[in-house]
Amino acid sequence: MLEAHFIIFLLWAVMQSLTGVFANGIILVVNSIALVRQRRLASLDLLLSCLATTRICMQVLIFSIHLVALSLVKESVFIDNFLILMFVNELGLWFATWLGVFYCVKIATIPHPIFFWLKMRISKLVPWLILGSLLHSLISSGLQSNYMWSFYKGVIENYFSKNRTKTEDTPSEPFYIFIAGLIPPLLIFLVAVLLLVFSLGRHTQQMRTMGTRDPCRNPHINALLSILSFLILYFSHYAVTILFCAQIVQFGSFLFLLCVMISGAYPAGHSIILILGNAKLKQNVKMFLLRGKCCQ
């Protein structure tokens, strides 16, 4: 790698990691202060706090991948923490999926008994969804450590090996099992996004037909832009994960470095989108930053 590329990639990795930790840290601190003051935490804030916690862990682990890619640390550091990375990644994807479902249920208007039932009970279901996601990720990681660790370890060692074998030499069954485990949250999130887009599109068309101005138009558009932006990051993260496990990209190549950069942009970018798209969170962050300046 050229020295200029090395420096640029290192600076990008540091900036990306600091941005992600800072953005998610602010979400966590703001909600923690609200919990201390009010003695309770709203369902959305609880979900955001859990998501921010996984994002901070994910950002630190992705930074370690950056260091390995730059040959600043040994690959054994990444191998030793790989199962933790898989657990945090899957848990974060489920939390992000439930966040998309929460926005969809709260904002969308769909005349169906099941959807109406969810709208009335989604806030009470959030703690159970969080607990279920945690248990599912723990069980999934445990099974992967017992039955698929040899596959993961082979993929990682194959990346860092100087005598890299062909992709065809790697067993395909564990790879398909891994992909199958990623499909459920992706499908749930995709359905939630499509329902939200359909509902908001129909609502906007009705307002235009009636010739009235919708007072909720701007918040709805902000929520829609937020979830669509997240959809792009969500799919990008999935694509990068599949490319890595399929060993399509070569270690040290430009495509490999680009994929690592995209992986780091996912937890950092979506957290910034959440802050900018959530009026309550955005206001609390402004107050938090202003108080921080006053204390200096």
UniProtKB/TrEMBL annotation:
SUPFAM superfamilies xrefs: Family A G protein-coupled receptor-like
Sequence intervals crossing the membrane: 6-34, 46-70, 82-105, 125-143, 175-200, 221-249, 255-277
Keyword presence, rRNA-binding: no
GO cellular component terms attached to this protein's record: membrane
Highest taxon in the source lineage: Eukaryota
Coiled-coil features, chain-numbered ranges: none
Name of the encoding gene: TAS2R1
Stored InterPro entries: TAS2R (IPR007960)
Subcellular location: Membrane
Keywords: G-protein coupled receptor, Glycoprotein, Membrane, Receptor, Sensory transduction, Taste, Transducer, Transmembrane, Transmembrane helix
Family indicated by similarity: Belongs to the G-protein coupled receptor T2R family.
Database matches in CDD domains: 7tm_TAS2R1
Keyword Transmembrane in annotation: yes
Protein name: Taste receptor type 2
Topological type in the membrane: Multi-pass membrane protein
GO molecular function: bitter taste receptor activity; G protein-coupled receptor activity
